[in-house]
Design a protein that fits this description.
This protein is of the alpha+beta class. It is 25% helix and 21% strand. It folds into two domains: 107 residues, Roll (CBS-domain); 34 residues. It contains six helices and seven strands. The strands form three sheets. The protein has a three-stranded antiparallel beta sheet, with no helix packed on it. Strand 3 and strand 4 form a beta hairpin. The longest helix is centred in the N-terminal third of the chain and has 10 residues. The chain is elongated.
């Protein structure tokens, strides 16, 4: 099974408009413990990203004045190998489908997927990985006997 951006992306994305005041964007970053926000125009198109670095290092009154305009995006079906490669350079990747923001992939989203915990229903052994193991390392049970454990609560995001 090929994992894609859609499998790890956050769909409840906090966004701002180009007219959003910088202090309001900064407040969103702090309140939600995130490192960046997609900037959407009135039609819902991604026109930029405003990051913590933009807020700290650039002068301007609005998100549109300080945002990074050249945004690298991916589609929902972009493979995780490519997503991982891009996340080495960029902290956030907007996921765009039919010209609209469908989600956002961060380094933390990818790490959460890699660190998933699977429990063998036969012996209770736990294993980690992006997909269910093919076999249990303890009892040899087939992968169909694994269940995905609930994620631990996230305290920090993209710090």
């Amino acid at each position: 099974m090929k994992l894609t951006a859609q499998d790890v992306m956050t769909t409840d994305v906090i966004t701002v408009s180009p007219d959003t005041r910088v202090d309001e964007a900064a407040a969103e970053l702090v309140q939600h413990c995130i490192s960046g926000l997609p900037v959407l125009d009135a039609s819902g198109n991604v026109v930029g990203i405003i990051s913590d670095i933009d807020v700290i290092g650039k002068e301007g009154r609005s998100a549109g004045e300080i945002m990074t305009r050249q945004v690298v995006t991916v589609s929902p079906d972009t493979g995780l190998d490519e997503v991982g490669y891009l996340l080495k350079r960029f902290r956030l990747l907007p996921v765009v489908q039919a010209g609209r923001l469908a989600g956002l992939v961060s380094r933390t989203d990818l790490l959460k997927r890699i660190a998933q915990r699977w429990t063998c229903a036969v012996c209770g052994a736990q294993q980690y990985g992006a997909v269910a193991p093919e076999r249990c390392t303890e009892c040899g049970a087939a992968g169909k006997n694994f269940s995905l454990e609930d994620e631990p609560p996230m305290m920090y995001r993209d710090m």
